[in-house]
Amino acid sequence: MLNVAIVAGGDSGEYEISVRSARQVELNLDRTKFIPYLIEIRKDKWICYLEGNNINIDKNDFSLPFRNTKIRFDVVFNAIHGNPGENGKLQGYFDMLGVPYTSCDVTTSALTFNKSFCKQVVKSFGTLTSKSIHLFRHQNDIRTSILDSLVLPVFIKPNNGGSSVGMSKVNEPEDLEDALLKAFREDEEILVEEFIEGRELTCGVLRSGGEIIAFPVTEIISGKEFFDYEAKYQAGLAREVVPADIPPGVSEECRNLSRFLYEKLNCRGVVLFDYIYNTAGFHFLEVNTVPGLSEQSIIPKMVRAYGWTVQELFTKMIGECVGRG
User: What percent of the chain has pLDDT over 70?
Assistant: First the structure.
């Protein structure tokens, strides 16, 4: 039996979604193989809920003091979306302690968390991306920079983050100011991307048993103008078609591209690639290296469509990272 630390929470606007994901992991772990410990992290507070007690984790060695002993963890199941679980900070800590974890390593996590840098790398592989600019809070006359460089409509989003927190679609110049304020509340830097007409498709990928597995492609049809935080997590505001109603050849192209990017970016664990598809092909939007695993999230739906249970997914994720450790 392996002691599994399921880390959740974090310091971003994705805290609640992370906690929901972690609780689903805890609920669905195979108890014949794993002993789960749910640990919530928020700034300096690292707390494990055990037998009705809130116990502080010893961060010197990532252990759990309990009944005059120390519980040590064989593996970490990383369910933290955003800082510090998706940007490489937590990965570096676990690497120094020699504790295996289910997500990407430090370098890949840091790169993919920075949307602008990741897009440039993916573009260098020959993959289509939208025209965009990367801007910082301290820059002068940001509004002019956007209007001089890009054609409206554009999406404005925090450069580091996920779940569409702080994201806006801007159709008119007079709407720029509010969108910029919204994005800068979440991050010191923003990414501004030209709108691309097309269908929003996403594909989950996992390495297991030496094979890179691409799950069924999913189409996201938002009931709002775009797939924002509310549409993602409020019932009835979006429809996720799993598998997507697209020709088999288009589906296979998407899955092949996702496998290719997974390998080129040196991903680990389960990740989610987002695209816009039109007659020009697949335009890469971003990769989520710690995707949601709650009941409302896309990955569990893809996995079930593939023929697995979420318990099988979690078992394979843990097995893969323990095997490489």
Answer: 94
C-beta separation of 7 from 90 below 8 A = yes
Beta bridge partners of 72: 63
- Residue 269's SS3 state is coil
Angle at 147 between CA 144 and CA 149, to 5 degrees: 105
Taking a C-beta distance cutoff of 8 angstroms, is the pair 217, 244 a contact?
yes
Closest alpha carbon to 11 in 165, 227, 233, 231: 165
Rounded to whole angstroms, the Cα distance separating 85 from 110 reads 10
Q: Which amino acid is it at 93?
A: Y
CB 276 within 8 A of CB 200: yes
Describe the crossing of helices 106-113 and 89-97 by its angle, rounded to 10 degrees: 180
Report the predicted TM-score, pTM, of the whole model to 2 decimal places: 0.91
pLDDT value for 160: 85
Q: Where does residue 99 rank: exposed (0-12), middle (13-18), buried (19+ CB within 10 A)? A: middle
CA nearest neighbour of 89 among 205, 11, 185, 186: 11
pLDDT tens digits, one per residue of 3-55: 999 999 999 888 999 999 999 999 999 999 999 999 999 988 999 988 888 99
DSSP state of 44: T
Closest to 36 measured CA to CA, from 288, 318, 292, 293:
318
Which domains can be identified in the chain, with CATH numbers?
Answer: 2-102 (3.40.50.20), 109-128+197-324 (3.30.470.20), 131-194 (3.30.1490.20)
Instruction: Characterize 153-187 residue by residue with b for buried, 16 or more Cβ atoms within 10 angstroms of its Cβ, and e for exposed.
Output: ebbbbbbbbbbbbbbbbbeeeeebeebbebbbebb
Look at residue 308 and tell me whether its pLDDT is greater than 80. Answer: yes
Does residue 165 surpass a pLDDT of 90?
Answer: no
Per DSSP, the three-state class of 10 is coil
